[in-house]
Amino acid sequence: MKAKKAKRARPKLPHASEEMKQWSAMLAQELSTWPKVASRPMFGFQGFYRGRRIFAALPVTRSINTPNAFMFRIKPMPAELLQRAKTDSRINTEGRVPGAKWFHFEVSAEADLRDALWWLNQAYERAK
Fold first, then answer.
1. In sequence order, what are the residues at sequence separation of 6 or more whose Cβ sits closer than 8 angstroms to the Cβ of residue 21?
2. Which end of the chain is more exposed for a tag (fewer CB within 10 A), N or C?
3. What Cα–Cα distance (Å) separates residue 111 from each residue in 78, 117, 123?
């Protein structure tokens, strides 16, 4: 008889703010025009893939950490990009575990979308 594994508690995902839902829709519209990009729903997010590799998750109903954040994936994160991320207050690099693949970007105004797209493009380019 097998022993039951203890279930790991799921992280609490806050509801995405109405503003973030709008910003996510704008970002998603742009990402969907990029070559070889597909999207799929996942746990209250819309996951974006370049081929088979996921590079971003934008909030649809849920968010990560705060109601106004999205995730992008860069593995490995080059040293020069990590240094740039550390100087951007919208990206939390302190709370992540070493070697983490996912980074969280906090959007507080529509003006942040330009930089959000820049980071999403960095993740897209490395998802080859």
1. 59, 60, 61
2. N
3. 26, 11, 20
Give the pair of three-digit tokens for residue 77: 């994160």
In the Cβ-directed half-sphere of 102, how many Cα atoms lie within 13 Å? 12
- Helices 18-31 and 113-125, axial angle in degrees (round to 10): 50
Place of tokens 């919208």: 90
- Please indicate, yes or no, whether the overall pTM of this predicted structure exceeds 0.85: yes
Task: List pLDDT tens digits, range 6-60.
Answer: 776 666 789 999 999 999 999 999 999 999 999 999 989 999 999 999 999 999 9
User: Contact 83/91 with Cβ under 8 angstroms?
Assistant: no
